[in-house]
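Notebook, bench 3.
Goal today: get a predicted structure for Secreted protein from Streptomyces morookaense so we can plan the truncation constructs. The sequence was checked against the plasmid map this morning, with no discrepancies at the termini. Length recorded as 746 residues. Pasting the sequence as submitted so the record is complete.
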Amino acid sequence: MRTRRTVGKTDSRRGARPVVTGAASVLLSMGMGMGMALPAGTAHAVGTGTRTAADTAPRIDLKVLVVDDGGPSVEAIRSTLDAAGTPYTRVDLTDPARQKIDDAFLADTVDGRARAKYQGIVLPDDNPFGGSSAEMAALAGYEKRFGIRQVDAYTYARPAVGLNVPADSGYAGTLDGKTAQVTPAGATGSFGYLRKNVPFEDNDPNVNESYGYISTPLAQQPDGASYTTLLDAPIPGGTGRGSLIGQYNHDGRSELVVTFVANQYQAQYRLVSRGIVEWLTQGVHLGASRNYFAVHVDDMFASDDRWDTKLKCTPGDVDCPGNPTPEHPALRMTAADAQYAKQWSQSHHLPLDFAFNGVGSVEYRSEHGGLPDPLLQQLTADQKSFRWINHTYTHAFLGCVQNTTVVPWKCATDAAGKTQWVSGRNISDEINTNRAWAAREGLAVDNDELITGEHSGLKMLPQQTQDNPELGPVLAKSGVAWIGSDTSREPQQRLVGPALTVPRYPMNVFYNAGTAQEETDEYNWLYTKKSDGGSGTCENSKVTTCLPKPLDVKTGFGTYITPLETRIALGHVLANDPRPHFMHQSNLSEERIGYKVLENVLSDYAGLFADNTPVVNLRMRDIGTELSKRAAWNAALAAGKVTAYRIGNAVTVTAPAGVQTLATLPDGTLQGGTAFGAAYAGSRWAWAAPAAGQGTLDFTLPAGSTPVLHKHGGAAAPVQAPAAALPVPRGVSHPVPYGPAATARR
C-alpha cells in the first residue's frame, strides 16, 4: 500500500500524606497560582503548646517571588517555572497599581512561628527599584533573616555585585557563537548536571542574538563577602577568563549574579535554567524538569510515495499528476532496514515507536505471488526491540469526506450543504482490522494508543473546523485512551471523546524522501523564491521564510538541513517538553536519512549533559499521562489549592484529592521512611500522592539542607545603588528563527 497524502503533506513538515505532627503544625491554604500576583493571605493557627528548640524554626513556603520588569531574562525564568510546575507570585513593575513589597508582604507569623512567604526571589537585576528604595531594603532584610536567595536575572558587572567593571579587565558586547564553561565550583554545585560547555547561539550573522559582560571578581572583596564563579568564558582580547554566572555572598545575603541577557528559547539559557532554579530554591521545590526525547516512525509496513525532482511534486498525491513509476518507485523499508533499525536503537539506547498499517504487508504478499513479507518477518522476530502503535489498517482519511476534485481539497457536502463525515463504522473498521491483523501475525500491540492517518478525524484547518463527530464515540467503544495529534495544528493536549490527545512534533525530514538529494530538492522547492527556481510559497507565507539561495542538492542535507533540524529538536528536548517527534518509515529506508538527525540530537545532547542527566524516552501512553498530570497539577496551582512549606528539614504538601504532587528534593530525602522519588540531574523527583486515608504528604530532607538563618533585628542588610539600564539586542527581545521552516521558536 502506498500512503497517499491529501492534506498537502502538513504532517511531515513544520507549519510552522501523613499529617504533620507537633503542637505548632499549621496547614494554610495560600495562593500558589503559577504567574499570578496574589495578595498575602491571613494565617489561622491550629493549636498551641510547649515549644522545643526545634519548634522555633521558621516556616518557609515553597513559592518563588518573581519581580518582573517585562524583560526577556525574567520572562525566561518564569517560563522555566511554568514548564516545571513550580509556583510563583509575580509582581509587575510596569503596573502602577501593583502590590508594594514590604515586610508584611514578605513575611508574617503563624501560631507564633515566623513564616517566610517566598523561598526565593527573582529580580530583573541586583536592584530594580531605584535609589534609597524601601522595597529593596525590605527584600534585603527578608533574605538575610530567612536565608532566602536572590537571582539577578541580568545585571551589570560592577563592585556592588562583587565584580570588576568590564572596562577594567573584562569584556562587554555580543556573545554570539562563544562558548562558556561550567567551573569546578559550578560542577560541584547547582550546575553539576552539565558536562561543561554552554555554547551561545548564532543563528543569523546579521543579527546580534546576545549581550553580556565577562568580568573578573574583585581581588579584594568587602569584609565577609565572597564571589564564586559558576559559569565563565574567555575574555576576548585577553588571556584570562571571567564570570557570566556567579554566587555573591555578602552582608548575610546570597545573590546569583547573571551578567548576560537571554530569552526563554535560546539554548544557552535552557542549558543553565535548571541550575538557576536549583540554586534559587536550594534544591527544594515543587515541580520538576527532565529532558525528553521520543521518536515515532509512521507508516510502518506501508510504502510512501516518492518526491519527483522533475515534476516538483509527489506522484500519487492529489495535487500531483500521474502515479509512481518504475523509475520512481514508492519507498518501503526492507528486512535489512529493519535489522539496522534494531541495531541502531540498541546502540543508541533509544527505543523507536513504530506506528503501523497492516495493509501494507498484505499488499506486499499479494504483489509477490503470496510470498511472505520479509519486512514483516524481521520486525515480528525483533518486535520487542520497538514499541508498536496502531496507525489504522489502510491509513484512510477519517475526517470529513474529501472533495479532491479541487486543489486544495475541501469537505464534501450534501444537498442541504451539510458536511459529510466518514462514518463511525468505517473508523471502527480501520482501528479493529489493524488490531486483528496484528494479532494474526503475532505482533503485540497496546490497544489504548492510536494514531490516525495524517491525524485525520481531528479538526484540520482551514478545511475541517471541527472533529469528525463520529470519532469520539468510536474511540470510546474501541478502548482508545490516547490519540496522536500534530503540534503544528494543536500544541496542547485535549479530550476527543474519552481519549486525550498526545501532540507530536513533525520533523522536517519529508515523508516522501528516501535520499539526501530528494530531501534537499524538495526543501529548495518549498523554501526558495520563484526567481531562484523554487515554488515561491515562502515569499507570502506567515509561517516560513525563504532561503537566501538554493541549497546544493549534493551537500545541503548534511551541511544545512541536518544541523537545522537537530537544533530544532534539541530545543524541544531542553525545554522540559515530553511531546514526541515523528518521521516516517521512508526516512529509515534507502539512504536512511532520518538517522542523521537523530544521531546529531543524541550526540549533541551527550556533549552537553553529564551522565546523571540522561534523555528520558517514554512511550505514547506515558507521555499522555505526564501531560495529563501536569494539566491537573497546574490547574490546582492556579486555583490556589496547593499548600507547601518547609519547617527545618520537614516538608509538608497538601493538594486536592486526586491530584498528584510534583516535587524535586535533594538526594537523601525520605517519604514515609523510604527514599523519595527517582534520581535525575543530581536531585530526586517524583509524582507523589498521600498514603491511603491521608490528606497531606510529608517529606524529611537530609541533614544540611536547611537554609542558614540570621537573628531577627540588628543592623539592616546594606542595599547597593540601582543597576543601570542594560542593552537588550533585538535578537534577544525578538527570538531569531533557526531557519526558514522554524519561524516560531518553541
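Confidence is low (pLDDT under 50) at residues 7-50. The first strand starts at residue 2 and ends at 3.
Flagging this for group meeting.
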